[in-house]
Amino acid sequence: MTFAIHGLPVARGIAIGRAVIMAGRVDVAHYFIEASQVEEEIARLRSARDAVADEIRRLQQTIVAMGPKEAPHELTALLDVHLMLLQDQDLIDGVRHWITERLYNAEWALTTQLEALSRQFDEMEDEYLRERKADLEQVAERVLRYMKGVASPVAAPPRRASQGRQQDLLLEGTVDVPLVLIAHDLSPADMLQFKQSVFAGFVTDVGGRNSHTAIVARSMDIPAVVGSRSASHLVRQDDWVIIDGDAGVVIVDPSPIILAEYGFKQRQAELERGRLSRLRHTPAVTLDGQKIELLANIEQPEDAAGALAAGAVGVGLFRSEFMFMGRQGHLPDEEEQYLAYRRAVDGMQGLPVTIRTIDVGADKPLDDTRRDAAHLNPALGLRAIRWSLAEPAMFLTQLRAILRAAAYGKVNMLIPMLAHVSEIRQTLSLIDYARSELDGRGVAHGPVDIGAMIEIPAAALTLKTFLKYFDFLSIGTNDLTQYTLAIDRADESVAHLYDPCHPAVLRLVAQTIAEGAAQGKPVSVCGEMAGDTALTRLLLGLGLRSFSMHPAQILAVKQEVLRSDAARLAPWAQRVLEAEEPSQLLD
Ligand code: PEP
Ligand code: MG
Question: Catalytic residues (predicted)?
Answer without folding.
Answer: 212 (tele-phosphohistidine intermediate), 526 (proton donor)
